[in-house]
Amino acid sequence: MKYDIVVVGGGPAGLAAAIEAKHRGVDSILVIERDRELGGILQQCIHNGFGLHIFKEELTGPEYAERFIEELVEEGIEYKLNTMVLDITKERELRAVNSVDGFIRISAKAIILAMGCRERTRGAINIPGTRPSGVLTAGTAQRYINMEGYMVGKKVFILGSGDIGLIMARRMTLEGADVKAVAELMPYSGGLTRNIVQCLEDYDIPLLLNHTVIEIIGKERIEGVIVAKVDENRKPIKGSEKHYGCDTLLLSVGLIPENELSMSVGIQIDNITGGLVVNESMETSVEGIFGCGNVVHVHDLVDFVTEESRRAGKNAARFVKKELRNHGPIIETKAEKGISYIVPHKIRILNLEEKLDIFMRVNDIYMGAKIVVKSDKGIIKKFNRPHMTPGEMEHIVLDADILKENKVSKLSIYVESEGS
Protein backbone atom coordinates (compact mmCIF):
# COMPACT_ATOMS: atom_id res chain seq x y z
CA MET A 1 0.00 0.00 0.00
CA LYS A 2 1.25 3.47 -0.89
CA TYR A 3 -0.12 6.83 0.23
CA ASP A 4 1.06 10.42 0.14
CA ILE A 5 0.17 10.97 3.81
CA VAL A 6 -0.60 8.46 6.55
CA VAL A 7 -2.09 9.75 9.82
CA VAL A 8 -1.62 7.55 12.89
CA GLY A 9 -4.56 8.21 15.20
CA GLY A 10 -8.19 8.99 14.41
CA GLY A 11 -8.94 11.30 17.33
CA PRO A 12 -9.47 15.07 17.07
CA ALA A 13 -5.81 15.69 16.12
CA GLY A 14 -5.65 13.06 13.40
CA LEU A 15 -9.01 14.02 11.91
CA ALA A 16 -8.19 17.73 11.70
CA ALA A 17 -4.73 17.05 10.24
CA ALA A 18 -6.05 14.69 7.56
CA ILE A 19 -8.84 17.06 6.50
CA GLU A 20 -6.48 20.03 6.30
CA ALA A 21 -4.00 18.05 4.19
CA LYS A 22 -6.87 17.20 1.83
CA HIS A 23 -7.82 20.89 1.62
CA ARG A 24 -4.21 21.64 0.71
CA GLY A 25 -4.35 19.47 -2.38
CA VAL A 26 -3.23 16.02 -1.23
CA ASP A 27 -5.71 13.31 -2.24
CA SER A 28 -3.94 10.10 -1.21
CA ILE A 29 -4.46 10.05 2.57
CA LEU A 30 -5.00 7.20 5.05
CA VAL A 31 -6.06 7.55 8.71
CA ILE A 32 -5.25 4.58 10.97
CA GLU A 33 -7.18 4.20 14.24
CA ARG A 34 -6.72 1.38 16.75
CA ASP A 35 -10.16 1.80 18.37
CA ARG A 36 -13.50 0.60 17.00
CA GLU A 37 -14.56 4.11 15.92
CA LEU A 38 -13.14 7.49 14.98
CA GLY A 39 -13.22 10.43 17.38
CA GLY A 40 -10.79 9.28 20.05
CA ILE A 41 -11.32 10.43 23.63
CA LEU A 42 -14.07 12.84 22.54
CA GLN A 43 -16.54 9.97 22.22
CA GLN A 44 -16.59 9.46 25.99
CA CYS A 45 -16.63 13.19 26.86
CA ILE A 46 -20.40 13.69 26.85
CA HIS A 47 -20.23 17.02 28.72
CA ASN A 48 -20.41 20.31 26.82
CA GLY A 49 -17.83 23.09 26.52
CA PHE A 50 -16.16 21.97 23.30
CA GLY A 51 -15.99 24.08 20.14
CA LEU A 52 -16.18 27.59 21.60
CA HIS A 53 -13.10 28.73 19.63
CA ILE A 54 -13.53 26.71 16.42
CA PHE A 55 -17.32 26.74 15.97
CA LYS A 56 -18.28 29.64 18.28
CA GLU A 57 -20.82 27.41 20.04
CA GLU A 58 -20.92 24.86 22.86
CA LEU A 59 -20.82 21.23 21.79
CA THR A 60 -20.42 17.91 23.57
CA GLY A 61 -17.37 15.80 22.78
CA PRO A 62 -19.25 13.39 20.47
CA GLU A 63 -20.90 16.34 18.66
CA TYR A 64 -17.50 17.97 18.11
CA ALA A 65 -16.01 14.71 16.83
CA GLU A 66 -19.00 14.05 14.55
CA ARG A 67 -18.45 17.30 12.65
CA PHE A 68 -14.94 16.21 11.70
CA ILE A 69 -15.93 12.59 11.02
CA GLU A 70 -18.65 13.75 8.64
CA GLU A 71 -16.21 16.05 6.84
CA LEU A 72 -13.64 13.25 6.60
CA VAL A 73 -16.23 11.02 4.93
CA GLU A 74 -17.44 13.81 2.63
CA GLU A 75 -13.85 14.45 1.53
CA GLY A 76 -13.45 10.77 0.70
CA ILE A 77 -10.47 10.29 3.01
CA GLU A 78 -9.73 6.61 3.58
CA TYR A 79 -9.49 5.23 7.12
CA LYS A 80 -8.92 1.90 8.85
CA LEU A 81 -10.42 1.07 12.27
CA ASN A 82 -9.32 -1.59 14.77
CA THR A 83 -5.86 -1.31 13.25
CA MET A 84 -2.67 -1.21 15.31
CA VAL A 85 0.50 0.35 13.94
CA LEU A 86 3.38 -1.85 15.12
CA ASP A 87 6.33 0.25 14.01
CA ILE A 88 7.53 3.00 11.71
CA THR A 89 10.84 3.39 9.88
CA LYS A 90 12.80 6.53 9.05
CA GLU A 91 12.05 5.75 5.41
CA ARG A 92 8.40 6.36 6.32
CA GLU A 93 7.22 2.79 6.07
CA LEU A 94 4.57 1.62 8.53
CA ARG A 95 3.80 -1.92 9.63
CA ALA A 96 0.31 -2.49 10.96
CA VAL A 97 -2.11 -5.30 11.72
CA ASN A 98 -5.87 -5.82 11.90
CA SER A 99 -8.32 -8.70 11.73
CA VAL A 100 -9.40 -7.96 8.15
CA ASP A 101 -6.14 -7.28 6.27
CA GLY A 102 -3.84 -9.19 8.61
CA PHE A 103 -0.26 -7.88 8.59
CA ILE A 104 0.15 -4.90 6.24
CA ARG A 105 3.02 -2.73 5.04
CA ILE A 106 2.26 0.86 4.12
CA SER A 107 4.68 3.37 2.60
CA ALA A 108 4.07 7.11 2.84
CA LYS A 109 5.67 10.29 1.57
CA ALA A 110 4.80 11.91 4.92
CA ILE A 111 3.50 10.62 8.26
CA ILE A 112 1.51 12.55 10.86
CA LEU A 113 1.64 11.18 14.41
CA ALA A 114 -1.55 11.88 16.38
CA MET A 115 -1.68 9.10 18.97
CA GLY A 116 -2.81 11.31 21.86
CA CYS A 117 -1.91 10.49 25.45
CA ARG A 118 -2.62 8.03 28.25
CA GLU A 119 -3.24 8.39 31.97
CA ARG A 120 -0.76 7.77 34.75
CA THR A 121 -1.78 4.72 36.78
CA ARG A 122 -1.41 3.77 40.42
CA GLY A 123 1.83 1.98 39.58
CA ALA A 124 3.33 5.24 38.30
CA ILE A 125 2.84 7.04 41.62
CA ASN A 126 3.46 4.14 44.02
CA ILE A 127 0.63 4.50 46.54
CA PRO A 128 1.22 2.07 49.44
CA GLY A 129 -1.42 -0.41 50.54
CA THR A 130 -3.25 -3.47 49.27
CA ARG A 131 -4.48 -4.04 45.73
CA PRO A 132 -8.28 -4.19 45.96
CA SER A 133 -10.74 -3.58 43.14
CA GLY A 134 -12.24 -0.11 42.85
CA VAL A 135 -9.01 1.77 42.00
CA LEU A 136 -9.31 3.23 38.49
CA THR A 137 -8.00 6.10 36.43
CA ALA A 138 -10.59 8.84 35.92
CA GLY A 139 -10.64 8.31 32.16
CA THR A 140 -11.34 4.60 32.54
CA ALA A 141 -14.25 5.38 34.85
CA GLN A 142 -15.48 7.94 32.31
CA ARG A 143 -15.51 5.34 29.54
CA TYR A 144 -17.26 2.74 31.73
CA ILE A 145 -20.04 5.14 32.69
CA ASN A 146 -20.52 7.14 29.49
CA MET A 147 -19.93 4.47 26.84
CA GLU A 148 -20.28 1.04 28.43
CA GLY A 149 -23.08 1.82 30.88
CA TYR A 150 -21.35 0.60 34.06
CA MET A 151 -21.46 2.52 37.35
CA VAL A 152 -18.05 2.17 38.97
CA GLY A 153 -18.88 3.03 42.60
CA LYS A 154 -21.08 4.82 45.10
CA LYS A 155 -18.63 6.38 47.58
CA VAL A 156 -15.82 8.04 45.67
CA PHE A 157 -12.54 9.73 46.50
CA ILE A 158 -10.53 11.41 43.73
CA LEU A 159 -6.76 11.89 43.76
CA GLY A 160 -5.47 14.57 41.42
CA SER A 161 -7.22 17.66 40.09
CA GLY A 162 -6.60 17.29 36.38
CA ASP A 163 -9.53 18.19 34.15
CA ILE A 164 -10.72 14.58 33.78
CA GLY A 165 -10.77 14.16 37.56
CA LEU A 166 -12.73 17.38 38.04
CA ILE A 167 -15.23 16.46 35.35
CA MET A 168 -15.66 12.97 36.82
CA ALA A 169 -16.33 14.45 40.27
CA ARG A 170 -19.38 16.14 38.76
CA ARG A 171 -20.31 13.13 36.60
CA MET A 172 -20.24 10.71 39.55
CA THR A 173 -22.33 13.13 41.62
CA LEU A 174 -24.94 13.40 38.87
CA GLU A 175 -25.10 9.59 38.73
CA GLY A 176 -25.92 9.50 42.45
CA ALA A 177 -22.49 8.79 43.93
CA ASP A 178 -21.17 10.51 47.06
CA VAL A 179 -17.89 12.20 46.09
CA LYS A 180 -16.01 12.72 49.36
CA ALA A 181 -13.29 15.10 48.11
CA VAL A 182 -10.61 15.77 45.50
CA ALA A 183 -7.03 15.76 46.82
CA GLU A 184 -4.22 17.55 44.98
CA LEU A 185 -0.53 17.16 45.82
CA MET A 186 0.40 20.62 44.50
CA PRO A 187 -0.65 24.00 45.96
CA TYR A 188 -2.72 24.66 42.82
CA SER A 189 -5.15 22.69 40.70
CA GLY A 190 -3.99 20.93 37.55
CA GLY A 191 -7.26 21.71 35.75
CA LEU A 192 -9.02 24.67 34.19
CA THR A 193 -10.49 27.28 36.53
CA ARG A 194 -13.92 26.87 34.90
CA ASN A 195 -13.89 23.15 35.77
CA ILE A 196 -13.03 23.88 39.41
CA VAL A 197 -16.04 26.20 39.60
CA GLN A 198 -18.52 24.14 37.57
CA CYS A 199 -17.54 20.66 38.76
CA LEU A 200 -16.48 21.15 42.39
CA GLU A 201 -17.71 24.45 43.82
CA ASP A 202 -21.18 24.16 42.25
CA TYR A 203 -21.58 20.73 43.88
CA ASP A 204 -19.92 21.54 47.23
CA ILE A 205 -17.14 19.01 46.64
CA PRO A 206 -14.03 19.89 48.70
CA LEU A 207 -10.70 20.49 46.91
CA LEU A 208 -7.83 19.60 49.26
CA LEU A 209 -4.68 21.32 47.97
CA ASN A 210 -1.29 20.13 49.30
CA HIS A 211 -2.81 16.72 50.12
CA THR A 212 -2.25 13.20 48.84
CA VAL A 213 -3.35 9.61 49.43
CA ILE A 214 -0.72 7.77 51.50
CA GLU A 215 -2.49 4.42 51.89
CA ILE A 216 -5.23 2.36 50.27
CA ILE A 217 -7.29 0.20 52.64
CA GLY A 218 -9.24 -2.89 51.67
CA LYS A 219 -8.71 -6.49 50.60
CA GLU A 220 -11.25 -7.57 47.97
CA ARG A 221 -12.78 -4.11 47.40
CA ILE A 222 -11.35 -0.76 48.48
CA GLU A 223 -12.83 0.30 51.82
CA GLY A 224 -11.10 3.62 52.32
CA VAL A 225 -8.02 5.80 51.90
CA ILE A 226 -5.69 7.59 54.28
CA VAL A 227 -5.07 11.17 53.16
CA ALA A 228 -2.34 13.42 54.55
CA LYS A 229 -1.23 16.99 54.08
CA VAL A 230 2.20 17.48 52.46
CA ASP A 231 4.99 19.96 53.17
CA GLU A 232 6.89 22.18 50.70
CA ASN A 233 8.91 19.11 49.61
CA ARG A 234 5.69 17.17 48.85
CA LYS A 235 6.32 14.84 51.80
CA PRO A 236 3.41 13.77 54.08
CA ILE A 237 3.21 15.64 57.36
CA LYS A 238 2.93 13.31 60.35
CA GLY A 239 -0.17 13.88 62.41
CA SER A 240 -2.19 15.27 59.48
CA GLU A 241 -3.58 11.89 58.39
CA LYS A 242 -7.32 11.54 57.86
CA HIS A 243 -9.39 8.49 56.91
CA TYR A 244 -12.03 8.67 54.17
CA GLY A 245 -14.35 5.72 53.70
CA CYS A 246 -14.95 4.92 50.04
CA ASP A 247 -15.52 2.05 47.64
CA THR A 248 -13.83 3.76 44.68
CA LEU A 249 -10.62 5.72 44.17
CA LEU A 250 -10.28 7.61 40.90
CA LEU A 251 -6.82 8.75 39.82
CA SER A 252 -6.35 11.96 37.82
CA VAL A 253 -2.62 12.35 38.33
CA GLY A 254 -1.37 13.39 34.93
CA LEU A 255 -1.31 12.45 31.27
CA ILE A 256 1.61 10.99 29.32
CA PRO A 257 1.99 11.53 25.54
CA GLU A 258 1.70 8.15 23.77
CA ASN A 259 5.18 8.07 22.22
CA GLU A 260 6.47 4.49 22.29
CA LEU A 261 6.00 4.37 18.51
CA SER A 262 7.85 7.67 18.13
CA MET A 263 10.79 6.55 20.24
CA SER A 264 11.13 3.30 18.30
CA VAL A 265 11.94 5.29 15.16
CA GLY A 266 14.39 7.55 17.03
CA ILE A 267 12.33 10.76 17.15
CA GLN A 268 13.61 13.27 19.71
CA ILE A 269 11.44 13.59 22.83
CA ASP A 270 11.15 16.63 25.11
CA ASN A 271 12.26 15.66 28.63
CA ILE A 272 9.77 18.03 30.26
CA THR A 273 6.59 17.20 28.36
CA GLY A 274 7.37 13.64 27.31
CA GLY A 275 6.10 14.82 23.91
CA LEU A 276 7.65 15.19 20.48
CA VAL A 277 10.24 17.87 19.75
CA VAL A 278 8.85 19.79 16.76
CA ASN A 279 9.69 22.78 14.61
CA GLU A 280 7.54 25.62 13.25
CA SER A 281 5.90 23.23 10.76
CA MET A 282 5.10 20.60 13.44
CA GLU A 283 7.78 18.39 11.86
CA THR A 284 9.73 16.13 14.22
CA SER A 285 13.46 15.45 14.27
CA VAL A 286 12.92 12.77 11.58
CA GLU A 287 12.33 14.39 8.19
CA GLY A 288 8.82 13.90 6.81
CA ILE A 289 7.30 12.77 10.11
CA PHE A 290 5.03 15.34 11.74
CA GLY A 291 3.22 15.43 15.10
CA CYS A 292 0.20 17.20 16.55
CA GLY A 293 -2.12 17.23 19.54
CA ASN A 294 -1.43 15.52 22.85
CA VAL A 295 1.39 13.44 21.40
CA VAL A 296 3.38 16.74 21.29
CA HIS A 297 2.16 18.28 24.55
CA VAL A 298 -0.98 17.84 26.64
CA HIS A 299 -3.62 20.42 25.72
CA ASP A 300 -6.45 21.88 27.81
CA LEU A 301 -8.88 22.56 24.99
CA VAL A 302 -9.65 20.40 21.96
CA ASP A 303 -10.02 23.63 19.94
CA PHE A 304 -6.27 24.24 20.38
CA VAL A 305 -5.61 20.64 19.32
CA THR A 306 -7.59 21.28 16.14
CA GLU A 307 -5.69 24.49 15.31
CA GLU A 308 -2.32 22.84 15.90
CA SER A 309 -3.29 19.77 13.90
CA ARG A 310 -4.42 21.84 10.95
CA ARG A 311 -0.95 23.36 10.94
CA ALA A 312 0.57 19.87 10.89
CA GLY A 313 -1.72 18.77 8.06
CA LYS A 314 -0.96 21.87 6.02
CA ASN A 315 2.79 21.46 6.39
CA ALA A 316 2.72 17.71 5.72
CA ALA A 317 1.01 18.60 2.45
CA ARG A 318 3.69 21.21 1.75
CA PHE A 319 6.35 18.57 2.43
CA VAL A 320 4.73 16.12 -0.01
CA LYS A 321 4.65 18.88 -2.64
CA LYS A 322 8.28 19.77 -1.82
CA GLU A 323 7.37 23.25 -0.66
CA LEU A 324 8.96 23.05 2.81
CA ARG A 325 12.49 24.38 3.10
CA ASN A 326 14.98 22.45 5.18
CA HIS A 327 17.78 25.00 4.98
CA GLY A 328 18.48 28.57 6.02
CA PRO A 329 18.57 30.22 9.47
CA ILE A 330 17.21 28.32 12.47
CA ILE A 331 15.95 29.90 15.71
CA GLU A 332 16.36 27.85 18.89
CA THR A 333 13.66 28.45 21.52
CA LYS A 334 14.38 28.24 25.23
CA ALA A 335 12.09 28.21 28.27
CA GLU A 336 13.50 30.32 31.10
CA LYS A 337 12.28 31.64 34.46
CA GLY A 338 8.67 30.69 35.17
CA ILE A 339 8.14 28.74 31.92
CA SER A 340 8.08 24.92 31.90
CA TYR A 341 8.33 24.36 28.16
CA ILE A 342 7.81 25.98 24.75
CA VAL A 343 6.34 24.60 21.50
CA PRO A 344 7.79 24.80 18.85
CA HIS A 345 11.33 23.93 19.88
CA LYS A 346 12.98 25.12 16.65
CA ILE A 347 11.96 27.63 14.01
CA ARG A 348 13.16 27.56 10.42
CA ILE A 349 12.85 31.18 9.31
CA LEU A 350 12.25 30.44 5.62
CA ASN A 351 9.09 28.42 6.39
CA LEU A 352 7.40 31.16 8.41
CA GLU A 353 4.39 32.84 6.86
CA GLU A 354 2.68 35.84 8.49
CA LYS A 355 2.75 34.80 12.13
CA LEU A 356 4.26 32.32 14.57
CA ASP A 357 2.08 30.64 17.20
CA ILE A 358 3.90 29.72 20.41
CA PHE A 359 2.41 27.58 23.19
CA MET A 360 3.76 27.15 26.72
CA ARG A 361 2.91 26.49 30.35
CA VAL A 362 4.05 28.38 33.43
CA ASN A 363 5.35 26.45 36.44
CA ASP A 364 3.60 28.45 39.18
CA ILE A 365 0.63 30.75 39.76
CA TYR A 366 1.26 34.34 38.63
CA MET A 367 -0.96 37.40 39.09
CA GLY A 368 -0.45 40.60 37.12
CA ALA A 369 2.66 39.29 35.35
CA LYS A 370 4.08 39.50 31.82
CA ILE A 371 5.32 36.92 29.34
CA VAL A 372 8.55 38.32 27.93
CA VAL A 373 9.95 37.23 24.57
CA LYS A 374 13.64 38.01 24.21
CA SER A 375 16.06 37.34 21.36
CA ASP A 376 19.82 37.57 21.12
CA LYS A 377 19.14 41.13 19.84
CA GLY A 378 17.03 42.21 22.83
CA ILE A 379 13.43 42.13 24.05
CA ILE A 380 10.98 41.58 21.18
CA LYS A 381 7.65 41.82 22.93
CA LYS A 382 5.88 41.65 26.29
CA PHE A 383 2.43 40.13 26.81
CA ASN A 384 0.37 41.21 29.83
CA ARG A 385 -1.22 38.34 31.71
CA PRO A 386 -3.47 39.19 34.71
CA HIS A 387 -3.58 35.54 35.79
CA MET A 388 -1.54 32.48 34.85
CA THR A 389 -1.60 28.96 36.30
CA PRO A 390 0.12 25.69 35.33
CA GLY A 391 -3.29 24.14 34.67
CA GLU A 392 -3.98 26.46 31.73
CA MET A 393 -1.85 26.59 28.59
CA GLU A 394 -0.60 29.98 27.40
CA HIS A 395 -0.63 31.03 23.75
CA ILE A 396 1.15 34.00 22.18
CA VAL A 397 1.51 35.13 18.57
CA LEU A 398 4.61 36.79 17.09
CA ASP A 399 4.86 38.70 13.83
CA ALA A 400 7.11 36.62 11.57
CA ASP A 401 8.58 39.74 9.95
CA ILE A 402 10.12 40.83 13.28
CA LEU A 403 12.07 37.57 13.48
CA LYS A 404 13.13 37.74 9.84
CA GLU A 405 14.16 41.40 9.78
CA ASN A 406 16.20 41.21 12.99
CA LYS A 407 17.97 37.99 11.96
CA VAL A 408 17.17 36.34 15.28
CA SER A 409 19.02 33.12 16.12
CA LYS A 410 17.81 32.52 19.69
CA LEU A 411 14.44 33.10 21.33
CA SER A 412 14.00 32.85 25.10
CA ILE A 413 10.70 33.27 26.94
CA TYR A 414 10.30 34.00 30.64
CA VAL A 415 7.84 35.40 33.17
CA GLU A 416 8.32 38.92 34.50
CA SER A 417 6.47 39.38 37.76
CA GLU A 418 6.49 41.97 40.54
CA GLY A 419 9.82 41.93 42.29
CA SER A 420 11.56 39.88 39.58
Radius of gyration: 22 Å
CATH domain class name of the largest domain: Alpha Beta
CATH topology of the largest domain: FAD/NAD(P)-binding domain
What is the helical fraction, as a range of percent?
A: 10-25%
Shape designation: globular
CATH superfamily of the largest domain: FAD/NAD(P)-binding domain
* Ends distance: 57 Å
Task: Please state the structural category.
Answer: alpha/beta
**Could you give the count of β-strands?**
25
By DSSP (H or I, 4+ residues per run), the number of helices equals 9
Q: Characterize the biggest β-sheet.
A: 7 strands, mixed
Number of domains: 3
Report the sheet-strand fraction: 25-35%
CATH architecture of the largest domain: 3-Layer(bba) Sandwich
Write a brief structural summary.
Helix content is 22%, strand content 34%. The chain is of the alpha/beta class and 420 residues long.
Describe this structure in words.
The chain is α/β, with parallel strands linked by helices and 420 residues long. The protein is 22% helix and 34% strand. It contains nine helices and 25 strands. It has helices at residues 12-23, 61-74, 122-125, 138-148, 163-174, 193-200, 260-264, 302-320, 400-405; strands at 2-8, 29-32, 78-80, 84-88, 93-98, 102-113, 117-119, 135-137, 155-159, 178-184, 207-209, 211-218, 222-229, 242-245, 248-251, 255-257, 289-291, 330-335, 339-343, 346-348, 355-362, 366-375, 378-388, 394-399, 410-416. The strands form six sheets. Strands 1, 2, 3, 4, 5, 6 and 17 form a seven-stranded mixed sheet that branches. It has a five-stranded parallel sheet with strand order 8-15-9-10-11. It has a five-stranded mixed sheet with strand order 20-18-25-22-23, with no helix packed on it. A hairpin with a 3-residue loop joins strand 12 (211-218) and strand 13. Helix 1 runs parallel beside helix 2 (61-74), helix 1 (12-23) packs across helix 8 and helix 4 (138-148) packs across helix 5 (163-174). The chain is globular, with a radius of gyration of 22 Å.
